[in-house]
Amino acid sequence: MPTIIAETRVACPADQVWAAVRDVATLARRAPHVVDVRTDGDTSVWTVLLNGSAVSWVQRDTAGPDTVLRFEQITGDLEEMSGNWVVDETTDGTRVRLVIDFELGVDGLAPLLEPMWAQSMQAHAEALLRALPAGSENA
């Protein structure tokens, strides 16, 4: 299962960044590859463009402990997807880390397709980090 890790440092206070991470619908609207995100309680429905195709899923979002937001696909186009956001206050601002684990579910083709999908998923993660409040700088 490929793992994607993206990280950035943000000049905003950690509580402001945490609020932005928790508000996934607003954050996602600032990322141009995200077609749609709808939230309902602890679930969110995503449609994003990856590799030129619309990919959709429903995920359960669980906050805590501390400033960690975990997510897990309930249903969707991927075989599996899960991960987390971690927001940490540092001496020079706030560090934000986004980790995504995914499985395409195409056993025989995985060696061919996973590298391409990993690049697209990495771009997805980095675009979400760039959508954070002003003052972010990729680490």
TrEMBL record:
Pfam assignment, any one: Polyketide_cyc
Organism of derivation: Micromonospora qiuiae
What domain of life does the native source organism fall in? Bacteria
Q: Which residues form a coiled coil?
A: none
Q: What Gene3D superfamilies does the annotation carry?
A: 3.30.530.20
Where do the Coenzyme Q-binding protein COQ10 START domain residues begin and end?
10-127
Q: What is this protein called?
A: Coenzyme Q-binding protein COQ10 START domain-containing protein
Q: Where are the transmembrane segments?
A: none
